[in-house]
Specification:
The protein is of the alpha/beta class.
Length: 367
């Protein structure tokens, strides 16, 4: 069995793709998996680190404003289409998988035209342009949110959730988790996280909440600042409060979620999937700077299901921490949010997606 997995550009595409590859390998130990990504993007580093080979395409996105970079876009597309045809002829896959991102468009498009069964996986509640264009050509579309019939053919949709590599659903006690961070298992904990690079707004929420934190002895904060903002926030007065554990990066997110009573975070696909899997009371502050405003759509989808609180980026520094304290003081409301978001968690998502891919591959024939 041979499978090509294509896409990338961000962790939101790459980590689900690696999770799918791992699940395929678990089912078919001798399966041959090849990744196809975009040259210069993070998949060219992360995929080999996970133990899989990858081919790179000379491809990038079309800029939404007038720029000289757009002049090369048609040439990149033509070059990538020819390169994909060559890769497919040489590798001879039984099926291909697109996870979104620049590289998945040319690869899945070419494969489908050559008669290779194709499956796509959409991580967000509002699909990207690539997956919208590919929908008509693929066998199945694996989605992470209900109601995706607005965007895709209903007969192709399978609600699988987002594949996750981490074992976040494993249970750890608050005592175990608090010991990792040197915090008190008896205090209510707010986790503020803006991703490995960090998010200025998330950091400002904590930075501007010095008095609120200092005045509440029953509350503690676990704060991931991120690499981009370490110099600005790591030595601030709030970061040095006894009840604040601040760090550039949190290695043990499983323990962080186990300790947290309320999480303040961005609304990227991976973060949302982690929050669903762990069933955490969530205050989502979508980044307004991502393509097609995906994070706002993700956060709205959860808010409309009564599964999370949404606060706009511009309002968050003044409102988000106060809302977190309010939720800590209203246990019934917090438990309702936890119950609703937990319903969206899909711990077996990677296995479900892998089975769909293998079924499509068995139906097809190698070129």
């Amino acid at each position: 069995m041979k499978i090509i997995i294509s896409g990338g550009g961000t962790g939101g595409h790459i980590y689900p793709a690696i999770a799918i590859a791992d699940a395929l390998k678990k089912r078919e130990p001798f399966i041959d998996i090849l990744f196809v990504g975009a040259k210069g993007k993070m998949e060219m580093e992360k995929v080999p680190a996970a133990g899989y080979p990858i081919e790179g395409l000379w491809i990038s996105g079309l800029q939404r404003k007038l720029t000289l970079k757009n002049l090369s876009f048609p040439f990149k597309v033509m070059h990538s289409l020819m390169r994909c045809r060559s890769i497919i002829r040489k590798f001879q896959p039984d099926a291909v998988v697109g996870v979104g991102g620049y590289a998945s468009g040319p690869l899945v498009n070419v494969a489908a035209r050559m008669g290779v069964p194709a499956v796509i996986q959409e991580q967000n509640s509002y699909p990207g342009i690539t997956n919208k264009l590919l929908a008509k050509r693929v066998e199945k579309i694996c989605v992470a949110y209900p109601g995706m019939e607005k965007f895709f053919p209903a007969d192709k949709i399978v609600f699988t959730g987002n594949p996750m590599r981490s074992q976040l659903s494993k249970g750890f006690s608050k005592v175990e988790a608090a010991a990792v961070f040197g915090l008190d298992p008896g205090k209510k904990t707010i986790l503020a996280v803006g991703g490995s690079l960090g998010a200025r707004t998330i950091n400002e929420i904590i930075h501007q909440s010095f008095d609120l934190i200092k005045d509440r002895n029953d509350i503690q904060v676990l704060w991931q600042i991120g690499k981009l903002y370490a110099a600005s926030y790591l030595d601030t007065p709030v970061a040095n409060l006894d009840r604040v554990h601040s760090s550039v990066y949190i290695d043990r997110m499983d323990m962080a979620y186990a300790l947290a009573d309320v999480v303040i975070a961005r609304a990227g696909a991976i973060t949302v999937s982690e929050l669903c899997l762990t069933g955490k009371t969530s205050i989502l502050v979508p980044s307004p700077y991502v393509a097609e405003d995906h994070q706002t759509h993700n956060a709205k989808a959860l808010m409309e299901l009564g599964a999370a609180v949404l606060i706009a980026d511009k309002d968050a520094p003044n409102l988000a921490f106060r809302e977190a304290i309010r939720l800590l003081d209203h246990e019934a409301e917090r438990k309702t949010l936890e119950s609703e978001i937990k319903k969206l968690g899909r711990p077996a998502a990677a296995d479900e997606v892998a089975e769909i891919i293998l079924t499509a591959a068995r139906k097809g024939k190698r070129i």
